[in-house]
Inverse folding.
């Protein structure tokens, strides 16, 4: 890692996630669905160490796969899960 550049991969920050919520809302996600997505990724968003805060690419990919595998538990359609993935990856 260079002392002049941040070589750390980009994470979806709390501020970015609020933008994601608004974008999902514009795609007809109801409040319960928005809360489900936020709750699902909250452990990554609110990690204790500053350098770990945010949702990284691997956490998005693993999380999306878990949502797909258990969409009936999370009450999100496969189409809506696709939208969640697209919107989160937009901020990486």
């Amino acid at each position: 890692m260079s002392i002049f550049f941040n070589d750390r991969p980009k994470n979806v920050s709390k501020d970015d996630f609020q933008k994601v919520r608004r974008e999902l809302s514009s795609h007809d996600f109801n409040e319960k669905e928005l809360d489900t997505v936020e709750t699902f990724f909250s452990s990554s968003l609110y990690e204790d160490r500053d350098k770990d805060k945010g949702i990284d690419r691997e956490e998005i990919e693993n999380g999306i796969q878990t949502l797909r595998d258990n969409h009936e538990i999370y009450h999100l359609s496969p189409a809506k899960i696709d939208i969640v993935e697209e919107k989160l990856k937009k901020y990486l």
